[in-house]
Amino acid sequence: MTRLPWSPATVQAKRLATPDAVSLLLENTIGEYLAGQHVDVRLVAEDGYEARRSYSIASAPGSSALEFLVERLPGGEASPFIADELQPGDTLEIRGPVGGHFTWTPSDRHPIALIAGGSGIAPLMSMVRHRSAAPDPEAPALLLYSAKKWSHMAFAAELESLAASDSSFSFVATTTREPARRPGDFGRRIDMEMLAAVLDSRGDRRELACFICGATEFVETAATALVRLGVPAEAVKTERYGGA
Fold this sequence. Notes:
Layout: E1 7-18, E2 21-27, E3 38-44, E4 50-56, E5 65-71, H1 79-85, E6 91-98, E7 112-117, H2 121-133, E8 141-147, H3 156-165, E9 169-175, H4 192-199, E10 209-214, H5 216-228, E11 236-240
Parallel strand pairs: 7-8, 7-10, 8-9, 10-11
Antiparallel strand pairs: 1-2, 1-6, 2-5, 3-4, 3-6
């Protein structure tokens, strides 16, 4: 297997996406990629110490820049520097794209259910954007997004806009530390009852393609519930995040 090379990428923009996370826009030096893939990032200190982390790509394939969502984790080696110190014009070393099991392309005509926990929205956002950019998206899509509060939902305004303009795309939010904000949203952790409710209008569950991304416990809870609700286990793809 050929090892992917490291390449410098310039930071084009950085903005606060949530109280705990920044959206980072980097020069695309990796070329083509699929929705759901990630890149490795390498930070090198003056004394030569290296910190490497993987970040999922949130931008749609074909974008001129790569967008990442970096959650600031106290005590972390990489995320505090990226969130607090890194500025537009600085460079990072990246390599990729990496990953092949957790990907989606518009050629997949199955209805899709996307389930995100916290910063796990990033690779699913790439899928949502890729689907939206397709000339005639045929696969109905549902995104169920869980976060502590509405203010902690990255891309919420964009998701609301996409749902308002596309009747085949649904965006449902659930907040674990405040009441539901909109009709149809929830105010608790994801559970089987909630998943059953949001899947009721999605047709035959045996035809769904499901993607789940979040912390390990979140992913395991959602994946187990989906299978118990009749979604084939092989149709449930998962991605767990961790590390700082």
